[in-house]
Design brief:
2 strands; alpha+beta; 3 helices
């Protein structure tokens, strides 16, 4: 799960001594990494729940799909927002 921390790490350029440009990597907080891990895990679990619901009952559950969409939007927003 190290790829999540790597995806959330920002690289910034700062001026160093004598005007040299230095690149510094800013790592995300552990709370943010755990939150993203939780959101990804819940998205996977809800997707499996939706598949099981369709397999056993044969109908689409829009509430589960809305939760999946919400978690996917949250993860996407965090990843795009952290890199920007």
């Amino acid at each position: 799960m190290n790829w999540i921390k790597k995806a959330l790490t920002r690289t910034v350029s700062v001026k160093g001594p004598r005007g040299k440009k230095l690149t510094v990597q800013i790592e995300p907080s552990e709370k943010l990494v755990l939150g993203v891990k939780f959101a990804i895990t819940m998205t996977i679990c809800l997707t499996l729940l939706e598949i099981a619901h369709m397999a056993f009952l044969g109908i689409w559950n829009s509430e589960i799909f809305a939760a999946i969409t919400g978690f996917m939007g949250t993860v996407t927003g965090i990843l795009i927002g952290q890199k920007g």
